[in-house]
């Protein structure tokens, strides 16, 4: 189905706290469990004011909700299960915060965050460090501007990051990370990254692994036809081309496979993110036997 997420964010604040207070939770009420996958959530939500001056109304508002796996029941051994959990967790963190931020957080090399390096849970360690770093960077970047310009410029930033278990087909498990960010300028940005892994082998899944040789031309035809069928005319008319090729950014579900396309990828920025789904009966002939 078609999906659009707007960059102008509405932060869901169920708690507003100063960033440096470090509210980070592993929320048990958000835990999920299926027959094959058990998860938990890291949630941090709040704002960092630009200044304590009552005349300054600007702030960095953030919402982070990372669902990550704690148990994969379909793995053949504990060793493979650990590899799968580690792979999904690193995909989530690297997609949400960037590989450089993640490596520095793990090693305790982010200024002002050395106390967080002692956190045994890697998700808590990285996410809390990244949020604290971004909060400090926001103030460092914008406070001098506010002193010079006052309210002449909009100096508020917004950041929303979510990851979640998307679906499963046989031994294939799919996860998604979505981030929407505004840090100044004409408009913000957002992206959706998908990751699928084989829980039997611990191997990340690519199109080349699951489709037979020569699949690309036929799959492109299927995606192009499907786009014409399901996209509203107001969306379809903005596509750069009626030919939609697979981009490797896909996820599995019991009903089929879905490809996610970012802004500017197959249509202008204003169109938003686009998803195109194919039911299993459409792609079955292309799969490796």
Could you give a short description of this structure?
This protein is 29% helix and 30% strand.
Keywords for this entry:
289 residues, alpha+beta, Heat Shock Protein 90, Actin, Chain A, domain 4, 7-stranded mixed beta sheet, 3-stranded antiparallel beta sheet, 30% strand
Textual characterization of the structure:
- The protein is an alpha+beta fold and 289 residues long.
- The protein folds into two domains: 19-203, Heat Shock Protein 90 (2-Layer Sandwich); 207-286, Actin, Chain A, domain 4 (Alpha-Beta Complex), CATH 3.90.640.
- The protein is built from seven helices and ten strands.
- It has helices spanning 78-97, 99-106, 122-149, 207-210, 215-230, 233-236, 280-283, and strands at 25-33, 37-49, 59-72, 157-169, 172-182, 189-198, 203-204, 250-253, 256-261, 274-279.
- A seven-stranded mixed beta sheet has the order 1-2-3-4-5-6-7.
- Strand 5 (172-182) and strand 6 (189-198) form a beta hairpin.
- Helix 1 packs across helix 2 (99-106) and helix 2 crosses helix 3.
Series of H and E elements? EEEHHHEEEEHHHEEEH
CATH superfamily of the largest domain: Fervidobacterium nodosum Rt17-B1 like
- Count every beta strand, where a strand is a DSSP E run of 2 or more residues: 10
> Could you give a short account of the major beta sheet?
7 strands, mixed
What is the fold's blueprint, element by element?
Elements: E1 25-33, E2 37-49, E3 59-72, H1 78-97, H2 99-106, H3 122-149, E4 157-169, E5 172-182, E6 189-198, E7 203-204, H4 207-210, H5 215-230, H6 233-236, E8 250-253, E9 256-261, E10 274-279, H7 280-283
Parallel strand pairs: 3-4
Antiparallel strand pairs: 1-2, 2-3, 4-5, 5-6, 6-7, 8-9, 9-10
Helix pairs in contact: 1-2, 2-3
């Amino acid at each position: 189905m078609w999906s659009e997420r707007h960059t102008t964010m509405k932060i869901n604040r169920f708690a507003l706290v100063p960033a440096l207070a470090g509210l980070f939770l592993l929320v048990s009420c958000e835990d999920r469990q299926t027959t094959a996958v058990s998860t938990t959530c890291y949630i941090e939500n709040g704002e960092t004011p630009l200044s304590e001056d009552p005349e300054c109304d600007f702030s960095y508002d953030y919402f982070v909700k990372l669902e990550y796996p704690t148990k994969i029941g379909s793995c053949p051994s504990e060793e493979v299960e650990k590899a799968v959990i580690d792979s999904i967790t690193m995909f989530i963190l690297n997609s949400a915060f960037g590989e450089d931020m993640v490596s520095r957080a793990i090693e305790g090399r982010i200024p002002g965050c050395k106390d967080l390096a002692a956190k045994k849970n890697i998700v808590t360690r990285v996410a809390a460090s990244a949020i604290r770093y971004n909060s400090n960077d926001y103030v460092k970047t914008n406070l001098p501007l506010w002193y010079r310009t006052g309210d002449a410029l909009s100096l508020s930033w917004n950041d929303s990051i979510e990851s979640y278990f998307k679906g499963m087909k046989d031994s294939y498990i799919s996860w998604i990370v979505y981030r929407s960010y505004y840090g100044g300028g004409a408009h913000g940005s957002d992206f959706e990254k998908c990751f699928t892994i084989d829980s039997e082998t611990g191997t990340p899944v690519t199109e080349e692994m699951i489709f037979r040789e020569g699949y690309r031309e036929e799959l492109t035809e299927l995606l192009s036809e499907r786009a014409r069928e399901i996209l509203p005319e107001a969306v379809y008319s903005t596509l750069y081309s009626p030919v939609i090729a697979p981009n490797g950014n896909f996820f599995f579900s019991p009903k089929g496979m879905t490809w996610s396309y970012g802004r500017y990828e197959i249509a202008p920025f204003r169109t938003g993110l686009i998803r195109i789904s194919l039911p299993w009966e459409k792609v079955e002939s292309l799969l490796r036997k």
